[in-house]
TrEMBL record:
Native source species: Anoxybacteroides tepidamans
PANTHER family linked to this entry: LIPID II FLIPPASE MURJ, PST FAMILY PREDICTED COLANIC ACID TRANSPORTER
UniProt-listed InterPro entries: PG_synth_SpoVB, Poly_Biosynth_Transport, Polysacc_synth
Transmembrane segments: 12-35, 47-69, 89-111, 123-147, 168-186, 192-217, 245-265, 297-317, 338-362, 374-395, 402-420, 426-446, 458-482, 494-514
Principal location class: membrane
Pfam families hit by this protein: Polysacc_synt
Alphabetical keyword list: Cell membrane, Membrane, Transmembrane, Transmembrane helix
Chain coiled-coil ranges: none
GO cellular component, one term: plasma membrane
Protein name: O-antigen/teichoic acid export membrane protein
Length: 548
């Protein structure tokens, strides 16, 4: 593949992923206005088990199939990749149907672990209904993942990108319209509305699959031409091909499982721990604030930071394989700096503005403010876990990702109930933070061991970033105080939105101004911000005295 085509394909795929993630964040806010805290909790009860099943079935499949097909296409053995694809379609169809049947069947077994009958709010029967509604998506998603990987292996990123965006759009439209019709027009029950919301995963998957089928028929003649050029010298058995595929996919399965498994621990322990300290009346509301609404806000800076940081992973892999230690150190420095540069000010700002941020996106809620303030710093660890896991993949030490995730989950499981009984909802936040901290620390130590990488330079840059963040925070605090005085701030949604926008503009302006003036911006992002340097040079030329 030419470098220009590679860059174009990577850009298209990254753009599709970013748009899909943004859509996945934006819909939450009108969804909250429709279903509230109790509906959010019920939605999570159904969606978390589904995410675990879907991660086991598909996490890493597109990339693994892409890597496999690309490898054999490069050898001129086009029929080998096609054989895997055809048998994989059958296997993924069977896997999807079996997964759906298993999740549908065990729903009554899962529900009592999630909620007790005496809990005020949703019932065990409600949880069973919602889990069963979302299980149908398992029939389609595995097949869709395989087709995406096949197209990517043929250097075609457009089908994956467009299908992801269409899948998300169809899901969100069906979810919001369906909930609105059930709750506002038909005056139906909350359980029915949430069942529609979780069933939207199936409808969205259908939309994504239609896009991929359309691309298949459009590219069929081209794919047939490739098969006609097949060299026919390699005939690996299916068993060996699937073994190779699993080796490619396994590390991504564990990374994809991280968030759902942490949420599953909360799902099985949170309500009981809250009930044990006499807070069963608010446990479901608190659970939805922590594990649904707050989590969606915290994940915003993570998405931005990892999108920039992960683009450097291919260069890290190339430098490691070539034994170029100097370049490897340079790229690792840049990757970690980018993550800290983007995440640290974002999470500090979010913690500082916790009250207006939560009120702007949802509604004024003292518990929501408290949870968001404690939860925001964990975003740094979420971003670092994703990036360090990718680095381990790049230096071919992905097996340690499994160990680090297991250690983190053990810490979370060990501390969760104890910390909840001591600090209520914030205890669950702290247990998650400690779990990810252990995982990240382990990953960083493994990276140091196998690359002989030293973190001194990154630590010094992090101190500089922290100084900028502190100055930014002081400015934001002043703006927040002035805004609350000027607007007679009472926690209203529109008032909160104005406060957040003004504070964010001032904070970002101060932070980027200091970064640009010190050269940190150019050091991290190169010519992406070259226009700032050009403007500064032009001002410098105009300021120079005339030679006459």
């Amino acid at each position: 593949m030419s470098s220009s085509k590679l860059l174009r394909g990577t850009f298209i795929l990254t753009l599709g992923i970013m748009m899909s993630r943004i859509l996945g964040l934006v819909y939450v806010f009108p969804f909250y206005q429709l279903v509230g805290k109790q509906g959010g909790a019920l939605y999570a009860y159904g969606y978390v088990p589904y995410q675990i099943f879907i991660s086991l079935a598909t996490a890493g499949v597109p990339l693994a199939v892409s890597k496999f097909v690309s490898k054999y296409n490069a050898l001129g053995e086009y029929r080998t990749g096609y054989r895997l694809f055809r048998s994989g379609l059958l296997l993924m169809t069977i896997t999807g149907i079996v997964s759906c049947m298993v999740l549908y069947t065990i729903a009554p077994w899962i529900a009592p672990f999630v909620i007790e009958e005496q809990t005020k709010g949703n019932s065990i029967a409600d949880v069973v209904t919602v889990i069963r509604a979302v299980s149908f998506a398992l029939i389609i998603v595995p097949v869709m993942s395989l087709i995406r990987g096949f197209f990517q292996g043929h250097e075609s990123m457009g089908p994956t990108a467009l299908s992801q965006v269409v899948e998300q759009l169809v899901r969100i439209i069906f979810l919001l319209v369906g909930c609105y019709i059930v709750l506002r027009m038909l005056e139906g029950s909350l359980v029915t509305a949430i069942s529609v919301a979780t069933f939207a995963a199936f409808v969205g998957a259908l939309g994504g699959l239609v896009v991929l089928i359309w691309y298949w028929w459009k590219r069929k003649a081209y794919l047939n031409d490739l098969l006609a050029q097949d060299r026919g010298q390699l005939h690996p058995p299916l068993k060996e091909m699937y073994k190779e595929l699993i080796m490619y996919a396994a590390p991504f399965v564990f990374v994809g499982l991280a968030t759902p498994l942490y949420q599953l621990i909360d799902q099985f322990t949170f309500n009981r721990a809250m009930a044990s300290i006499g807070l069963e009346k608010i446990s479901e509301e608190a659970y939805s604030i922590f594990n649904v609404w707050g989590q969606k806000l915290v994940i915003i800076p993570v998405t931005l930071a990892t999108s920039f940081g992960l683009t450097l992973i291919p260069t890290i892999t190339k430098a490691y394989v070539a034994g170029d230690r100097k370049s490897l150190r340079k790229y690792l420095n840049q990757t970690f700096q980018v993550v800290m540069f983007l995440t640290l000010p974002a999470v500090v700002g979010m913690a500082l503005l916790a009250e207006p941020v939560y009120a702007a996106f949802y509604s004024y809620d003292p518990l929501g403010e408290q949870v968001l303030r404690w939860y925001a710093p964990a975003a740094i660890l979420f971003a670092l876990f994703s990036v360090t896991a990718a680095v381990l993949q790049g230096i071919n030490q992905q097996r340690f990702t499994v160990i680090s995730l297991t250690l983190g989950l053990f810490v979370k499981l060990s501390l969760n109930t104890f910390l909840i009984t001591k600090f209520a909802t914030v205890g669950a936040v702290l247990a998650t933070t400690f779990g990810y901290f252990v995982s990240v620390l382990f990953n960083l130590s493994i990276i140091k061991k196998y690359t002989n990488y030293r973190y001194n330079f990154v630590i010094r840059r992090t101190v500089l970033i922290s100084i900028f963040t502190t100055i930014m925070s002081i400015c934001v605090a002043i703006v927040l105080y002035v805004c609350e005085w000027l607007f007679d701030y009472q926690g209203g949604r529109m008032e909160s939105m104005v406060v957040v926008v003004i504070s964010a503009i001032v904070g970002a302006g101060v932070y980027f101004f200091m970064s640009e003036r010190t050269g940190l911006l150019a050091s991290l992002f190169g010519n992406r911000f070259a226009f700032l340097q050009r403007k500064k040079r032009r001002r410098g030329y105009r300021d120079q005295p005339s030679s006459h």
